[in-house]
Amino acid sequence: MPSPTDQPIWTPSDSRIAAANITTFRLTAAARWGLDLPDQASLHAWSVASPEQFWISVWEDGGVIGERGERVLIDADRMPGARWFPDARLNYAENLLRRRDAGDAVVFWGEDRVKRRLSHDALYLEVAHLAAALRGLGVEPGDRVAAYLPNLPETLIALLATASIGAVFTSASPDFGAQGVVDRFGQVQPKVLIASDGYFYGGKTLDCLGKLAEIVERLPTLRRVLVVPYVQSDPDLSAIGQAETLAAFVEPYRDVAEVPFEPLPFDHPLFIVYSSGTTGVPKCILHGAGGILLQHLKEHRLHCDIKLGDRIFYYTTCGWMMWNWLMSGLASGATLLLYDGSPFAGDGRILFDYAEAEDMTHFGTSAKFLDAAAKQGLEPRKTHGLQALRVMTSTGSPLMPEGFDYVHARIKPDLQLASISGGTDILSCFVLGNPALPVWRGEIQCRGLGMAVDVWDDDGNPLRGAKGELVCTKPFPSMPLGFWSDADGSRYRAAYFERFPGVWCHGDFCEITAHGGLVIHGRSDATLNPGGVRIGTAEIYRQVERLEAVVESLVIGQDWPPERPTDVRLVLFVKLREGLELDDALAERIRRTIRDNATVRHVPARIVQVPDMPRTRSGKLVELAVRNLVHGRAVSNREALANPEALDHFRDRAELAY
């Protein structure tokens, strides 16, 4: 862990701090409320202590279109149960479609095969046409519209048309199999399904029509299936019930030029998103329009410093919460840079090609992408012109200190690198970046404004400089409305409020540093416990993956001995560079690296080579599924994985080890 005497790896200049949105916000809030807010620490303290003042200021700073009403927060002592802006009326889509001009609203790259762009004027018209067509079909507030689509402009259009009516939008990416889609959409009973005929990945063309036909047969509530031709110009839809192309569906409404935005309550449902489903049927998490809009405006404008005309990118599919997060960037007047396909398509540099070609200002990615880019030897600093790039965000898993080194040495030195963390559960972040604060190697910069984030020990005592549970002790607007089909809220409460009643316990094992930043050591349910000492999985991954021979690693705790367990032993699985085999010498080098840079408690009892690591469709390792396999327990929902076949490499492998 860096000590307080270490130097930050990036410090914003005085001029950058002065020009930052968060500085303007701090000074404006201080004047509006008669406060002394001299720095970022006082700003955060006020945002948590005075939530009514703070969220009014966020509403005003973001220029929210709608009626705010008098009341801001009622039942503030209930968690869950607090209600925000109970008298407000607004429409999410209206706030995202506020720009009406010829500037780029959306730019799209489908690997190196497809390039498109839509102006703000053109986007508005496309939404007007589809919204009118959906209303003509009988779609009403509260109905569900589902998208089984790549990250296309049409997916955004579908979201905005749905939200303009007050219907609820839900999505899954086309790499999901039929069962994975039915597990999700089948629970929420959509009236309309919008899908593509296929998608491109890694230079290959992948068909979706066969899966789509099976899905449609198993969703009896569908009134219409709309197909976007993406990989074919004229796909054959004869095998798909109630199907027509999206273009044919909206054709009768091409003369419609206005979107009638439905004014809706602050907590009107907007999105249904899903848990990964690796331990059972996915949970359907319901999010409200007002809370998501306010939270995203805060995160985009204040924490990411997104300004009018910025060009923002996140590598994501429509099955990951970062897609929803990215779409809200339109509310800050930004251009959305969409991409679908492999992040290493072509010669492996396509995302940096995109950044250069489109003057990308914000580059959103994952820790795994940065690690892979480093191991492939990519040096965009030398090969690409990234003058416009100001901010890089990383999420999905903890970004190791070496990842910070790579970004500043090989991508761009003068760059705010914001490791961020939150989740599908809140469709936003608990901890993230701040353009007015330094970046310390290996640390997330700060806690989110308005978020009463803390780290507690098992007895609910706050910790500093020690590892514990990430909690949020006060309500915030982007808390879920609840779970679908959970009328009494019991499943929702059990998921987040059982560990510490009245306090959100997120399930991350982390610590608050001397700089006020955070380090996340892994998921709490994957935390290792050899000899009664809690160890985060990320602590081991950091050491193992610094070795050139190791591409990726996964560690579990195995109950030991198996006949009558009295302890836990660590079993480390490694994926090596192509052509390498795990032998005694490499196994010893791995152990020595861990021992020298962590502790003897971190050293695995067994090391096993596997050809691939199982992960969710958003790229996260599934340590719990592997642990279940090693213990002879079934993995209940393999369909939730991007590569379920990888699990087969782990079955009964713990003994075949060094």
From TrEMBL:
Keywords: ATP-binding, Ligase, Nucleotide-binding
Domain Acetyl-coenzyme A synthetase N-terminal positions: 42-95
Keyword Cell membrane annotated: no
GO molecular function: acetoacetate-CoA ligase activity; ATP binding
AMP-binding enzyme C-terminal domain sequence ranges: 546-620
Superkingdom: Bacteria
SUPFAM superfamilies given in the database record: Acetyl-CoA synthetase-like
A Pfam family that the UniProt record links to this protein: ACAS_N
InterPro entries (UniProt xref): Acac_CoA_synth (IPR005914), ACAS_N (IPR032387), AMP-bd_C (IPR025110), AMP-bd_C_sf (IPR045851), AMP-binding_CS (IPR020845), AMP-dep_synth/lig_dom (IPR000873), ANL_N_sf (IPR042099)
GO BP: lipid metabolic process
Domain AMP-dependent synthetase/ligase: 105-475
This protein's record includes keyword Acyltransferase: no
Family: Belongs to the ATP-dependent AMP-binding enzyme family.
Protein name per UniProt: Acetoacetyl-CoA synthetase
Record organism: Imhoffiella purpurea
